[in-house]
Amino acid sequence: MPTPQPATRREWLGLAVLMLPTVLLALDMTVLHLAAPHLSADLQPTSAELLWILDIYGFMIAGFLVTMGTLGDRIGRRKLLLGGATAFGAASALAAFSTSAEMLIASRALLGIAGATLMPSTLSLLRNMFQVEEERTLAITVWVTGFIVGSAIGPLVGGALLEFFWWGSVFLLGVPVMVLLLVCGPLLLPEFRDDQAGRQDWPSALLSVAMVLAVIYGLKDMARNGVALAPILSIVLGVAIGALFVRRQRRLDEPMFDMSLFAIRTFSTSVGAMMLTVLALSGAWLMVFQYLQGVLGLSPLEAGLVMLPPAVIQTVASLLVPRLTGWMPRWKLVSMGLVLAVIGLLMLVPVDSTDQIPLLIAGMTVMGAGVMPMMILGTDMVISAAPARKSGAASATSETATELGMALGIAVIGSIGAAVYRRHMLSAMPDGLPADLSLAAGDTLGGAQGAAAQLPTEIGEQVMVAAREGFSMALHTNAVIGALILAVTAALVALLLSRPDDEGDEEDGEAGDPSLAISPDQQ
């Protein structure tokens, strides 16, 4: 097998190009919620249409990741990336100038499908561009840091645009970024494809999309509206379609997705650990901004400033991960990081007043720093364990695992927190409230705020005291559940990854795989 070649200046400049869609997607996931009130006033969507505007993008990304990842293995990862960038730029412009809610929903759906081409393409290109393990780890670290930076600056960029321009300006962010990618990509990014992959099996692609969409839809509906027959049937349908998908892959001579990847212990363990980590975090992480504003009474700007130090320190911590891999095994670094994240989550439990905001900042910082080895090295282990020619499928699997982890966390842990809140409100709300206001206040923190505004001052304050106590209990409950899941994940990583894969598990797995087809512009 050829010796892995160190990256040249071209590869490192190519890494900068691959950062562009990473930062953009993180931005795009945060700015829309800021723009929602503005576009609602302009387009006047119904409540159902507004939910679809907010959710359809994530649905499409999750549903099409596996299909796009395997398609990139077949037609070329750079070709898919540039084609997806063109579609993303066009869909961004279409969304920006939408004249109706239906048009915006369709534009957001196209954005999601185009977005699903970007992430597996960028990650699989990194796998092939950086053949030396240490360089690849550093490249993936920079790639993951792009998400952190994009998420951190999203509220600031979105707020600035909405201050001076109309709501559509937040979508136009994608146009110049994608134009720059289309100009620099052909010059700096090599092409890679798997010539052994055969033709794309479109029935398998349809099954894959239907499987993920059904499960994600069911989980999100359950998180928003509680346990009901419809979301349960949707999840069951998704699982059944998944069984058909797996059965078809095992019977095909040239499957769309090679299920044998899951026989590689490093691959399957890393995918599972990443999903569990995101699941554990999502229950508490997504509640913190509501907690800061609705319970502690901070303004949106103050809440953003409170969350800035954790984001900065998390970025610094991510850049230290490649150095730490030289001092200890990767499985040990990941496990120790998860234990640190457990401590960070447990630090949120005593927080119940503005006097303890420093403790909340410390807890979020410790948690964020602790999960970075998992997110960086877990991603690295997923794509490195798979053969280089299958890196598109491996990258898509990694991204799909995080999407499923997020949806599961919101649906399962979020539902437990919501149940804790509702149970507290049933016993703590003052008697004699109108039925509609009592129902709204007992459902969500936002409902309690709306109900309190319609009640006499004294009674409204009693409702808000009960709501703050209930939401605090929900956050603390979710933090404890997340800590338990992270502790189990740390133990599983230590148990399953401390031993090397069985001999032959990683056959053909190096970037120098001779079966990997490289286009002439790379040679």
Protein traits:
single chain, 523 residues, Growth Hormone, Chain: A, 3 domains, two-stranded antiparallel sheet, 78% helix, 1% strand, globular, disordered C terminus
Let me know the largest β-sheet: 2 strands, antiparallel
Number of strands: 2
Order of helices and strands: HHHHHHHEHHHHHHHHHHE
What name goes with the CATH superfamily of the largest domain?
Answer: MFS general substrate transporter like domains
The CATH class of the largest domain is identified as Mainly Alpha
Oligomer: single chain
Mean pLDDT: 79
Shape: globular
At CATH level 3, the topology of the largest domain is: Growth Hormone, Chain: A
Low-confidence stretches: 503-523
Looking at the overall shape, the CATH architecture of the largest domain is Up-down Bundle
Secondary structure topology:
Layout: H1 9-43, H2 47-75, H3 77-96, H4 101-129, H5 133-164, H6 169-172, H7 174-188, E1 192-193, H8 202-225, H9 229-251, H10 265-295, H11 300-324, H12 330-346, H13 357-385, H14 391-428, H15 435-443, H16 445-453, H17 457-497, E2 517-518
Antiparallel strand pairs: 1-2
Helix pairs in contact: 1-4, 1-5, 1-7, 2-3, 2-4, 2-8, 2-14, 3-4, 3-7, 4-5, 4-14, 5-11, 5-13, 8-9, 8-14, 10-13, 10-14, 10-17, 11-13, 12-13, 12-17, 13-14, 14-17, 15-16, 16-17
Q: How is this structure best summarized?
A:
With 523 residues, the chain is mostly helical. It has 17 helices and two strands. It has a two-stranded antiparallel ribbon.
Account of the protein in words:
The chain is built from 17 helices and two strands. It has 523 residues and is mainly α. It folds into three domains: 1-197, MFS general substrate transporter like domains (Growth Hormone, Chain: A, Up-down Bundle), CATH 1.20.1250; 201-255; 260-508, MFS general substrate transporter like domains (Growth Hormone, Chain: A, Up-down Bundle). Strands 1-2 form a two-stranded antiparallel sheet. The longest helix is centred in the C-terminal third of the chain and has 41 residues, at 457-497. The model is unreliable at 503-523 (pLDDT under 50).
